[in-house]
Amino acid sequence: MIRDRCENRRLLTRRQAIAAGGTATLAAFAGCLSTNSDDNPSEEGSGSSDNDESDWSGDATTVDTDHPYTTQPEIINLSETDGTVTLDTVNCRHQLLDESVAGGPWELPEVWAWKADDGDPSVPGPILRTTEGEDLEITYHNSHERPHTFHVHALGKSWMDDGTPTTTGKQVNPGEEQTYEVDTDVPGTHLYHCHYQTQTHLDLGMYGLVRVDPKEYDQPDKEFFLTIKEWDTRLSATTAGGDVSYSHRDRNPDAFTMNGRAAPYTLHPEDGSPLIVTEGDRVRIHIANTGYESHPIHLHSHRFEVVEKDGGVVPPAGRHKEDVTNIAPAERKTIEFVADADPGLYPIHCHKVHHVMNEDSYPGGMLTGIVYESAMQTEQFDELMEMAGFDE
Ligand SMILES: [Cu+2]
């Protein structure tokens, strides 16, 4: 009976559910999965070998927690703080889609979100921005209930600051802290993440970017960060205490995000990350893949060049115009183009097109848009904003 109720839940969008029965309907559905479990199979990563999913509706939204919601990632200018920042981890819920939008799953009931200093936790974590040559002191103060570490790609550091317990024997236990001294010897866009039980901790949202601008950075007219990732929402559901088994060997993504949101929520001007440009702008997008699968990113009607990859500058002789570039897990590519198309609205999306879906609903998932300012007065833009759940 419980199962039937959950399956019914899947047939309704939340908007329909509210229309049909108001909050009482939602409350009835909220109890579909147990929220009590002392045993958390996700921590050691192997999960349960008994993959009986008979009670699982496939919708992580049906697991309830009262964690606070994540916010949008902030960009922290470390040049203004002498290179210091204190990071921590907070249990949060994370909204993939605005609840008025059709499709699903709508939210991850538990993520482990980075926060910086007095800021709010976010997935991806805060973007730590600095300039080449300004050394960093990144303190990880752990007030979460699990051990974690701070590990950053590409940048120089001593062995004990690599944040990798397997080789350093060091982790930051609950209540402890460690300061990681990191050089900014490699300009570029770099990934940071927790390296404790990485298969689980990274996949629960413990990732973010460090951006090191070269000393003489040729700032473009418009610059965006796009962190792409696919999710198997069962991991979040089981971590939140839902009655679902999950195995890393059986990871089967059902949510696809850009900067933590699924389309059309990605197009929401405040909660998403539409790329708003003016005709003639020189535009750079720093794309990073924090998932475990590759994602070929395609731009409509613009041809770009890959100008940086993993902290290396692509020499001009190696650049060429293209419209799709594959981004492997942990890879970072900076692409550059001129906003010289017919001013309008143009998708940018993963071309594994089944990643451009929210469950069975297309379009969704790993998609956002290039929006020309001059096209924002059109009815097409109004429709897009309505789809994105933005009604002001
Ligand atoms: Cu961790």
Q: Can you write the helix and strand succession as a string? A: HHEEEEEEHEEHEEHEEEEEEEEEEH
CATH topology of the largest domain: Immunoglobulin-like
Give the CATH superfamily of the largest domain.
Cupredoxins -  blue copper proteins
| CATH architecture verdict of the largest domain | Sandwich
CATH class of the largest domain: Mainly Beta
The structural class is alpha+beta
Low-confidence spans = 1-54
Q: How are the strands ordered across the major sheet?
A: 11-10-13-18-15-16
End-to-end CA span: 41 Å
Q: Rough shape?
A: globular
Overall mean confidence score, pLDDT = 86
Structure explained in plain terms:
The chain has three domains: 1-32, no CATH class; 75-217, Immunoglobulin-like, CATH 2.60.40; 225-387, Immunoglobulin-like, CATH 2.60.40. The chain has helices spanning 2-11, 14-30, 165-168, 198-201, 233-239, 379-387; strands at residues 75-77, 84-95, 107-116, 127-131, 136-141, 151-152, 177-182, 188-193, 207-213, 222-231, 255-258, 275-277, 282-289, 295-299, 305-309, 312-313, 324-327, 332-338, 345-350, 367-372. By secondary structure, it is an alpha+beta fold. The two termini are 41 Å apart. Copper (II) ion binds next to loops.
Compact summary:
This protein has helices spanning 2-11, 14-30, 165-168, 198-201, 233-239, 379-387; strands at residues 75-77, 84-95, 107-116, 127-131, 136-141, 151-152, 177-182, 188-193, 207-213, 222-231, 255-258, 275-277, 282-289, 295-299, 305-309, 312-313, 324-327, 332-338, 345-350, 367-372. The chain has 392 residues and is of the alpha+beta class.
